[in-house]
Amino acid sequence: MSTSLLYHCFGIRGYRYVSQQHRQGGVAITIDQDRRSWRCSACGSRDVRPKGRRPREFHGVPIGTRPVTIRFAVPRIKCLKCGKIRQVKIAFAAPKQRYTNAFRDYVLSLSQCMTILDLSLHLDVSWATIKEILKEDLNRRVGKPKLGKLRRIAIDEIAVRKGHHYLTLVLDLESQRVVFVGDGKGADALKPFWKRLRRSRAKIEAVAMDMSWAYILAATENLPQATIVCDRFHVVKLLNDKLSDLRRELYRTTKDGLEKDVLKGIRWLLLKRPENLNEDRNEHQRLEEALKVNKPLALAYYLKEQLGEFWEQDDSEQAEAFLLDWIAMAEASGIAVLKSFAKTLRQHALRLLAWYDYPISTGPLEGTNNKIKTLKRQAYGYRDDEFFRLKILALHETRYALLG
Ligand SMILES: [Zn+2]
User: What contacts 262, CB < 8 A, 6 or more positions away?
Assistant: First the structure.
């Protein structure tokens, strides 16, 4: 071992190699530092007087499978400039860290193909240490996304941890990056985002979101210039929910045993797009028979299929005429769930039509949501909310999406 090896292999420069010990399958390397290069860790002054030593150990880059410990009796000094007693500045490790910078970089490069658990076993350090290294790196790289260039965004909430805990996400629709992760849902969850957005002076043109008033009011208040687009994804989802409610209600009220069976059997078929119905399983025929015996359900189903055409009109004028027709038909249907849905559409007509100016949706957030589910499945330690938040902000780096 030599001082030169210390530098080239362990990233420790400006220190002297003293000795090495072999213990418990690992290697401990003792180093020292010339008095002439001592510096105050606070002000950098050389004008320092020795005040004893404090022995410390650092995880170093391993040699093959052998863990390496760097031992350094860190000089304590009195800085004549600050007038305080402290340890000297350490060049090869971050303040208060128990690993060298080279070790940290080694962990970061391996983390692209190894999980935290793999790394902790391979390097013989705690799970928490590896996680802290990754967390600090994430925080530095993605912790505070720049918002200044945001133009089109999507806002939506996702359920984490079995539906009780929510996060509100903001996605940059141009770069497909998550730029904000808010705790909870509703207007409060977005407050820190508006604050950061104001500071960034971003000029948001359009925001895609669902038809909930909480987000609409918050966006109207904080982005008075932006166009709000209530997106297709949520409209279709809401109508599907209404259709399910209707089927359930019909099932409950019908006395006819045969009709009950038919209604039960088509539960999922109602929500499928017609082109996705499976011919081998006779799904088309089964659905048609069910609709034949049940007028309200048939009407609701055809209206649902028709609504999709709202987003396929030539322009916003045609779309408006289409929407008003559709609303009139739904209101005339006499079916309560459709009437309430029609009322919702009427309230949001302008925001639905806004799609013709800004064809955006929260759809891309669904992809993000799926990646987050993968994260959760692999996550043995996302009880650390801040770490989980950082992992979400880093989702655009696919590798991080795939690994814990
Ligand atoms: Zn000082």
Answer: 289, 290, 293, 294
